[in-house]
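Hi support team,

I submitted a single chain yesterday and got back a structure, but I'm not sure I'm reading the token output correctly. Could someone confirm the output below corresponds to the sequence I sent? I've pasted both exactly as they appear in my results page.

Thanks,
R.
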Amino acid sequence: MGIRELKTFVAVAERGSLSAGADARFISLPAVSAQIASLEAEWGISLFDRTRKPARLTNEGIALLAKAREVLVLYDQIGDAVREADDLTGSLVLGSIPTALTSVIPKALLSLRTLHPGLQIRVHHGLSPSFAEMLRHGEIDAAIISEPRVQLPSVRWEPFAREPILVIAPREAKGRTDEALLKAYPYIRFNRHFWVSHVIEEALAKRRIVLRETMELDSLEAIALMVAHGLGVSIIPVSHTSFLRLHRVKAVPLGRPPLSRTIGLAERVGNPKGRLTAALLDALNRAAAKSGRST
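Hi R., thanks for writing in. Yes, this is the structure output for that exact sequence:
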């Protein structure tokens, strides 16, 4: 039994179904089933009464849920205690993709500032390919970027969160599935040179979905604005549901299982500010876990 299995069990128990737990943990339904089965096998009990629809917690499951919550709280407190024992000072120049700026970064930076008031972090926003070059040239100390498609020379990348990749459409759009929306409306492409765009194109090619491309934009906000005005649909990574509400668009997952991208912290191998980036990565992991988007 590990922390990951307990987090998955709590997510399923609190949300009422395996599929909802899978969505909350951003893992596949088979992975959730396997983790729950592992817990049941280890303890020799049934955590859910599967004869009922939807499945409900057994008495043993209710007991484990209470203790699992306590364990997860203690797990977070252990990390906090260790971090508080090591005060950090210095400066860090950080690059970040836009979606992280509106999701995990604010929480992570607030945590770091509380634990290490002497640590100064300057943040630049941009896109993954640009930050990869800046890292190699020593222009930044670290960067939050999506998973590189190839190994970057002399760069180490550590994943910490997943972001869903969604089909966004005007609120009044009638299609209920990703394929229906993509076939019914013109397509607004996210810049094809961005790493995430390659992931999207590969997924569409496998399903042989033909798009009627109408424009190509660099900005997620600009794409959402165009979609909200009824000019088409698009496929983009979304860090938080507030983005959808703000731009007045609706969204459906892309594919089954839903497609997502992994984001992580990249730094040069042998980074002289390794202690600072380690503290940052720890804060990012905790922020992602609390938001339900950890890897």
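A quick pointer for reading it: The mean pLDDT is 88. Let us know if anything else looks off.

Best,
Support desk
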